Amino acid sequence: MRHLTLAAVMALLSAPAFAAGHASGDAAAGEEQFNRQCVACHVIVNDAGETLAGRNARTGPNLYNVTARGIGMYPDFAYGDSLVELGATGEMWTEENFVGYVQDPTGWLREKLDNRRARGKMAYQVRAEEDAINLYAYLASFSAE
Questions:
Q1: Is residue 63 packed enough to be buried (19+ CB in 10 Å), middle (13-18) or exposed (0-12)?
Q2: Cβ-count burial of 121 within 10 angstroms (0-12 exposed, 13-18 middle, 19+ buried)?
Q3: Per residue in 55-94, pLDDT tens?
Q4: Which of 69, 86, 118, 143 could form a disulfide with 82 if both were Cys (CB 3.0 to 4.6 A apart)?
Q5: Does pLDDT of 21 surpass 80?
Q6: pLDDT class for 145, splitting at 50, 70, 90?
Q7: Are 51 and 89 in contact (CB under 8 A)?
């Protein structure tokens, strides 16, 4: 009985981490990073049309529910060919994929597609892996799930 109770408690404690797109970072720190690094190009607008974060930026796609979305799958956004090609394989924006992409969009796409001519359209790069992980945690907090 004691093991069953311990297992139940552990499951309950781990539920929030898994509910947010399996994010391991600090969402509060990610919010700071988003407001410093991402708002110039991205916005987070929910399905009801409410702006939840960011300004009215339209250079990059809306990042609402990105952690539950396939790569290159936001409707009516003009993604680069390489990102669309990768998305067609069924790849999702997991924490690992997101972190790799935002740190080096072109290099990450070349590696994933095994194509030295692949190119990413996102010019900005997040320098620190921890910042990228925190950004993913922040974006996971805007998941429709």
A1: buried
A2: middle
A3: 878 799 999 999 999 999 999 899 999 999 999 999 999 9
A4: 118
A5: no
A6: low
A7: no
Assigned token pair, 143: 């998941």
Tokens 């935002």 correspond to what residue? 102
**Which CATH number do you get for residue 50?**
1.10.760.10
The confidence score (pLDDT) of residue 34 equals 95
Q: Which two tokens stand for residue 96?
A: 């690992």
- Does 145 map to a domain? no
Q: How many domains does the chain have?
A: 1
Neighbouring residues of 112: CB distance < 8 A, sequence distance ≥ 6? 86, 91, 97, 100, 118
Range of the domain at 89: 2-140
109 within domain boundaries? yes
CB 126 within 8 A of CB 37: yes
Whether 130 is covered by a domain: the verdict is yes
Query: What does pLDDT average to over the chain?
Result: 86
- Other CB atoms within 10 A of residue 123 CB: 9
Examine residue 88 and state whether it is found in any structural domain, yes or no: yes
